[in-house]
Amino acid sequence: xxxxxxxxxxxxxxxxxxxxxxxxxxxxxxxxxxxxxxxxxxxxxxxxxxxxxxxxxxxxxxxxxxxxxxxxxxxxxxxxxxxxxxxxxxxxxxxxxxxxxxxxxxxxxxxxxxxxxxxxxxxxxxxxxxxxxxxxxxxxxxxxxxxxxxxxxxxxxxxxxxxxxxxxxxxxxxxxxxxxxxxxxxxxxxxxxxxxxxxxxxxxxxxxxxxxxxxxxxxxxxxxxxxxxxxxxxxxxxxxxxxxxxxxxxxxxxxxxxxxxxxxxxxxxxxxxxxxxxxxxxxxxxxxxxxxxxxxxxxxxxxxxxxxxxxxxxxxxxxxxxxxxxxxxxxxxxxxxxxxxxxxxxxxxxxxxxxxxxxxxxxxxxxxxxxxxxxxxxxxxxxxxxxxxxxxxxxxxxxxxxxxxxxxxxxx
Length: 412
Prior knowledge:
Layout: H1 24-35, H2 39-59, H3 69-80, H4 89-105, H5 115-126, H6 130-149, H7 165-239, H8 244-273, H9 289-298, E1 302-306, H10 314-334, E2 339-347, E3 350-357, H11 370-383, E4 386-391, E5 397-404
Parallel strand pairs: 1-2
Antiparallel strand pairs: 2-3, 3-5, 4-5
């Protein structure tokens, strides 16, 4: 599984990545889009500004100067700067604002000259440069106030008069609306980025949980069966010459245990190959406890069952079976005792399992390996239950499991 990067603030073509997903192709496409220059949109916007400014010049004939080569050059420069809006949004927003201010101060007609400023402001805000966008628009408005109300007598056109304050309020409202729209888009993109990151994290979490579940199943199946096979193989080798019939019985037990292990491993692998489909064989439960006791007996372990064997909900049934299976496997592998007791208690929606052996331990791993005990605890915790495992005061080892009669998801 590819590593997922924590999303930063989304950028309008800036250095931060705002496309997230498990596939490298998505990121490659995003990088390709950012690397391309926005030629088409810039050309369309430039054409709109030039054509719209011609109409504005006809409408304001006599009040503002006619368009000439210098004015058209300013319009081209202001629109052309937008080619860099994805790479250098701060430079673009200040550049377009400066060009628009020079254009207005030179006495040319009002009109689409402010459109590149709006697009540059939008790009800067979405890229995360909010302060730069606000500053550029504020300087543009302040410069316009200075030109239109104090310097208009010294600037063209001749006989110009200051605009009304209602017009200035309208310009300020336009600027605030541009920034507000930009902020709205920025917030929405950040929300989308967070949602994508949360979905990716949830998918990784589900994958990890499924991986751990499969690891527990394989461990429980293989550890138990291989322990039985190991014990019976030792018996067979020891009795091969002196008691061939008993050796034959051991080999028969090995064959049955290996067949069962292969069947359960195949069931787990079928689940992996067909995700979302129901397993072909039912999951094991406490109804298979007699079979488990028989396998333990073939490995030389006598198992006593105390209390009535319950029939809890499927999730708890599987967990209880696997816990008993792992506990008996650990007795076979790590205890000198050849006798174990399994006790069941059911009260107030809680199933209690207690597995005892009288020891002593035959090695450092008394009670079982770390993986086996960890798997039992994970199974119990997944259902909302607990596991306590450790040596008893009078010797031996005890596993005590407390499980809900129904798993949490089965109560819904």
